[in-house]
Amino acid sequence: MKRISHYILFILFISFGLYSVPAAAAAPDNASLSSLTIEGIKLDQPFHESTTQYSAKVNSELQQTTVTATARDTGATITVNGMKINSGNPSQEIQLAADSITSITVLVKADGAEKSYTINVTRNPVPSVLSASIKSTGETAAIVTWSIPAGVTDLETVFVSQDGNTLGQVKASDGEFRITGLSPGRQYQFSIVGYNKIGKSGSPVILSHTSSGQSVGDVKLTTLRLDIPLHETFSPARLSYTATAAYTKDKITIYPVGVSGSKIKINNTEISGQMTLPLIVGLNEFKVEVIGSNTQQSTHYIVKVTRLNQSTKSDLISLSLLDVKLNEAFMSGRTSYTAHVPFERADAAIVTTADTSTVIKINGSPIASGTAHNTTLVVGDNHFNITVTDPEGRINSYNLKITRGTPSSSSPLRSLFVEDVKFTEWFDPARTNYTATVPFEKETAKVFAFVNAPAYVVIGNSYAQAGNFVNVSLQEGSNVIKVALHDGYGKQTTYTIHLIRLGSTGTNTNNGKTTESKLVGSVVLKGDTLELDIREKSGTTPYKVNLEDIKKVYSDKSKKLVIKVGEANDSQHAITLDNNTLGFLKDKKLALRLEVGKISANLKSNELPVDVLTLSLKRLSSMGSQLPKGSIPAMVDYQVSTGNHKSLHVDIELNLDLTLENTKRAVVYQNEKLARTSAHNNLKYVSVYGDTILSAGMIERRFNDILGHWANEDIQLMAARQLIGGYEDGAFRPDQQITRAEFIQVLVTALELKGDKSMQYADVQEDAWYYDSVNRASAAGIVKGDKKNQFRPNEKITREEIAAIFGRLIENTENFSYTNTLNIHSFKDVNQVSPWAKDAFNIAIQARIISGTSEKLLSPKASGTRAQAVVMVRRFIEFTQGL
């Protein structure tokens, strides 16, 4: 009976849920993490595989982090923000948004299941100082004090400003800043701003303060200038100034102006208007005192002028940077210079010129006078010591500091390398070209590129997974590998790796074939080139080229004779070719090339003279002597001489060591005149006739209203080449509509159109500023009058009128290339084009001279703008003559 009752009781427990059967142990979740860590960041709670939401806070200085996630299942896949990582290994760097929340998602997949973990990281703003206050410490002085919030570690520096002008900076931990030079009884506003170690600022704290004492009005200077530039910008509140004078300046004139009713003394002598004082070599100090009308208040200013020493043979003649302007103007006797370049500049070229008898060294390395010393730049300060030693052993030393800026944001490219290959250049995210030489045995190259998400790279034509390589086959000789970096936001940067694979005998090869080289006498045969090197020879008489030496090595494949001469003053820089040698070159159709340094003179075989030719290419001691004031020389001056053949045509090739765009911008002057030039493959070309002196450099012409404009680069290029100008107020006014006369002026000037047709337009008078340009354009047949024989110079020119002019120009240009697949019928408003302009408009479109105002509109009746005109003229010049 008891056994039956126990059985019934058990059934009741089961039926009414009063008893539960223990469940079987749960199977492990393979789509889970066993550990999760964030570099440099502490999560709000300890990690547990079942917890999927985390948060963290970091200070303002932490800009990036990495995630290391380990999967429970060894076969699971893990992605961090969509990028695959290996279990237990760190991810690519993740950028943390400033003053914001960055979400990091870790996704684990295994056995068809998946689990997502989210970490929200808040990057705090730069903190502000606490308890800021100011109090007077006298009638003209005060002290600002503050404290740092508890636990804050990212408040490094505090800047104090007075009425918008920065007074100075101190360490945040100092807790105070002392102020002097206040006027009694005057009200001021001060700003206290904290900065972290990476230069980011917090919110300012604003303090108002009225200085103690009774106000008698400000007794300050309203103007202070010298007859030489001050180093500092004048401000009535600034009390100390400095300036530098050349040795040749033995006097200085000071022009101070005080507030109304005040009187001024310089070195205790009352003046009226100005005062001229003598300068000694070295430091000169002048005290300028402004005294109030009641003589109870005065303000003292100090002006310190340093007069430089007299120049000697061991002084530099010039110091410049290619493409970069020094902060201080070069001046004989000045020994310290600085310059700033953006992060995007990974290198710089320093050009120094001194007497040819001296030895110049930059950081201990000898450098020839007038040549560019190329150097790499690290982020921050780069210091260069330049010494000039004359024959008597006297040494002058100069200091140059080039500061390279920091990137506005972290570069997406972290590393770029080829396995087991050492580049000639060190890696820098801003450097886009790398070179190396590899042995013959290396048939393939493993190219690695590491990037930050969401960026990705394409190496050659292959997409590179994060942390993986792309294998590239190498041929003997030159191999060019393109690495395209996509930053994930629409911007692309291309990096180029140039690998030279040696031949099987360890020699350099060209397209897989070893270059033949055999030495016979003084002439060497190299491929299709006959080469004569006389750079080590000295003498003042021209070197006579020996025809028999040429004949011994000549082959049917030979195309030119290259003669290399030296740069030194006593080097052989002139050659002579007699009638027989010239006849041989002409008969065999051999071009002649004379090289010295990075300049060469070239003559085609059919342009060689019949009579004796003496050709000279000499480096001069001057640099940029013909360039306009303020230009930046790119090389020393050279002199081309053609002996008795004063009208001989010579093509000059210049290697200015500039980028292609800056090579295009560079100008060349020949015999005091701006030369017509072209650029190709980073080389500059100019044609000369007879004896010529050449100078080359960069002209900086900046306009104050084109930054960010779509035509910015075209305008800068054309202005640098002195083909266009701006207005007296420093503006270019790119979107201003252009008149018919203005457009023709730009076109004729840029194309150097010639012509002397005597036109008879009823509305163009001979004394008009545009008369000559309209006359030349009319003579060239590119402009015509209307039915009333009027040119209408002051009317706005329409886009179809511009197209018609370019259409006529193109029709008169031989072998013009039409590369555009678009034509006039590709645009919806083609019917708005006047019948007389349709053919010309179509030609201009197919020639890529003119494009639509949008993808589908030509806007033929719209007035052309100054920017549109410049861009069209630039395109035409580049397509027909080269820039």
UniProtKB/TrEMBL annotation:
SMART domains: FN3. Keywords: Signal. It holds the Pfam family fn3. Residues 126-215 form the Fibronectin type-III domain. Residues 698-761, 762-820, 824-883 form the SLH domain. Residues 1-25 form the signal peptide. This is S-layer homology domain-containing protein. It comes from Paenibacillus agilis.
